[in-house]
Amino acid sequence: MADGNRDKNQEFDITATAQWQALAEHQPEVAALHLRDVFAEDPNRGDELTVDVGDLHIDYSKQRVLRETLTKLVDLARAADVEGKRDAMFAGEHINNTEDRAVLHTALRLPADATLSVDGQDVVGDVHEVLDRMGAFTDALRSGEWKGYTGKPIETVINIGIGGSDLGPAMVYQALRHYVTGSIHCRFVSNVDPADLVATLDGLDPETTLFIVASKTFTTLETITNASAARQWLVKALGSDDAVSKHFVAVSTNAEKVSEFGIDTANMFEFWDWVGGRYSVDSAIGLSVMAAIGKEAFGEFLAGFHIVDDHFRTAPLEANAPVLLGLIGLWYDNFWNVASRVVLPYSNDMSRFSAYLQQLTMESNGKSVTKSGDHVTADTGEVFWGEPGTNGQHAFYQLLHQGTRMIPSDFIGFATATDDLPVLSASDDPLTAQSDGSMHDLLMSNYFAQTKVLAFGKTAEEVAAEGVEERLVPHQVMPGNRPSTSIMSHELTPSVVGQLIALYEHQVFVAGAIWGINSFDQWGVQLGKSQAKELLSVITSADSPAAQSDSSTDALVRWYRKQRGRTP
Ligand SMILES: O=P(O)(O)OC[C@H]1O[C@H](O)[C@H](O)[C@@H](O)[C@@H]1O
């Protein structure tokens, strides 16, 4: 099937291939094995089923795969022409066929001396021109040279955006808490629930606050509504419309709408239609992050993505981290009927990483038709979720360990703490207590223990041998055989955050390429938006007909209008 000349947008049924069939036949053999036996038979897998990329050390040996499984999965990737599709993406071909667009987030992190021309346009030149403008602007903010309307320097930057225009910067800002240098701090507003804006503005001084209105389209209802309310808050406080130009900038692809909103396009930072919203944190959408950490650290962040891009583009599929992890995800999704993957960063600063990944992975691969418009013949789109360790351990790990469902997990952990404190016993005199180790070591001991227990569990014999009462033995058996990947790095640096994001971006690509779907459009979010617009006029008016197309929505709308005092 792999054919370099094949139209990359013309899909075929991957499930009809011999490679798919081989995996389907192989699955029962693997399913019959316990990871305890798999490790006993292949004792070196813990050292060998690993891959290093940049600063990431990835151990996938605790996955329910044999070496043979990986070979078969790579064969499937070749059958789906993952390499050809990958090269088409990097080259700027219009692989987003439903919107007729290139998909070039990888160009956002190319070094300035790289060359890439797409549709006759010097993409690298454009990217670096905007990066330079972002650098000059954030330098001015950070040095205090940029003054608010009343002459005071800016202290707080509020990013107003939603989806890809919020999740990336909010997640990265938190992850890089230790790299916030200077006096600029950021807050993020996304929800059209006014509680978000009101709570975020609470206690802020309009004279020292600057808003970044971040929206690719600049038509997103939530963002424009919040931005208008924020403008009113500012203008009311500062007494003049003229204050807007000193307190509002925009990040968008739509200059016309930006200027319609009243933001001077001189204060607009551009990106391009070939950057998907959920792939845009490394574009001007990251402006708030740059304001907080500075352009040099932002440059390191971009360089981190680029390390993984290069690896993804050049490493053989057998040793290619995003390819292997994407394939292992698909292995469970399609051959084990396992729908979800839990992501568990053992890093409090990465608390928002799972939320970020939810958009990246599920908006990309939650599709039911192939690029050719045919219904897919296998399930697509893993469900991603998660919480940071150790919080998750005290909430949902019970189900991971002893529930009837198998949920593969990705553990993420760091050798060096972003913060550390000594472990002291509560009874010690706080003034003289001796340290009994580091809290970071305690955190990481949990990481290792969890992956171990998930994989190997505890048998009834082992439980009984501890003298556990017979009737309680079945309750205390830990089945094990629950797969996980361990992703480790030395420290949570800007580069490492970039590397982690790119690692997941390309996993999404690999799975989407095999399924033959378009991972870069999101038609499924449109209908709800347009119906919300229609319903707004219905729920806010006492006169308009309450009857909608179904009795449930109709009754709910009537109930709501009554509560709001709008209809009898
Ligand atoms: O950046 P914007 O154009 O405001 O879009 C914000 C978000 O809204 C949409 O609903 C899309 O589903 C997302 O992919 C996008 O990130």
TL;DR?
With about 575 residues, the protein is α/β, with parallel strands linked by helices.
Q: What proportion of the residues form beta strands (DSSP E)?
A: 5-15%
Ligands (ions, cofactors included): 6-O-phosphono-alpha-D-glucopyranose
Radius of gyration: 26 Å
Give the proportion of residues in helices: 40-55%
Structural class: alpha/beta
Which overall shape is indicated by the principal axes computed on the Cα atoms? globular
Distance between the termini: 65 Å
Spatial arrangement of strands, main beta sheet: 1-2-13-12-10-11
The tally of helices reads 21
The biggest beta sheet reads: 6 strands, mixed
> What is the arithmetic mean of pLDDT?
95
Tell how many strands the DSSP assignment holds: 13
Residue windows where pLDDT falls under 50 for at least 5 positions: 1-5
